[in-house]
Write a structure and sequence with these properties.
The protein is α/β, with parallel strands linked by helices. The chain has one domain: Alanine racemase (TIM Barrel), CATH 3.20.20. 40% of the residues lie in helices and 17% in strands. It contains 9 helices and 8 strands. It has an 8-stranded parallel sheet. Helix 6 links the parallel strand 5 and strand 6. The mean pLDDT is 96. It binds pyridoxal-5'-phosphate (PLP). Pyridoxal-5'-phosphate (PLP) binds at residues 34, 36, 57, 83, 167, 198-200, 214-217. Pyridoxal-5'-phosphate (PLP) is lined by residues 34, 36, 57, 83, 167, 198-200, 214-217.
Length: 224
Amino acid sequence: MSIIEQNLQRVHRQIRTAAQDCGRDPRQITLLAVSKTKPVTAIEAAIDAGQRAFGENYVQEGVEKIGWFRERPEGAGLIWHFIGPLQSNKSRSVAENFDWCHTLDRPQLARRLNDQRPVERAPLNVLIQINISGEATKAGIAPEAMLALAALVTECPRLRLRGLMAIPAPESDFQRMSALYEALQRVHPGVDTLSLGMTDDMPAAIAAGSTLVRIGTAIFGARE
Ligand SMILES: *Cc1c(COP(=O)(O)O)cnc(C)c1O
């Protein structure tokens, strides 16, 4: 068994334990393998271990990996999530290649992704990124701006609003994200995804209702 397969099994066990500790069904939590900076051989090892959903932060690197796996049988059925900051001039590559974008944080970006999503593909799944810790340097919109941006997304036929994403500061209150997520669900009942939790904060994120944990280091090892 490869190291990556062992790591994936351990992370799945940790997800089960964290879910049980707060009375949740572990099947409500999807594991996103964050493969940024890692080679395709590492992704192949994760695929061999049954992993299908991968997260990438850098547009060019992600598009190259998606292209690589598109040509290969083991690439069938993979789901690619864009999870990095997105400059407007790179939105087309995300709209054309990825299945999800986690970092929608402004109206203009929603309009661009909608215009650029190819008609032959399913609508792009989008998450609104929230700056939950209120840090000036962090990406994401203020919680007060969430509903207006969500309303815009639902008017975009080539986008599908799936939920929220956040990268909370270590000491911040994860429960605020679950309250916001519930507020969004009251207005948009189809919303089903709260993208919260990384290697160092996964149990707290699961306790706050995360349905999608983004895990890099615990699966693929430390990055350069
Ligand atoms: C890199 C990254 C992750 C994964 O972080 P780890 O600590 O390696 O698990 C998750 N989410 C985002 C947005 C990232 O940039």
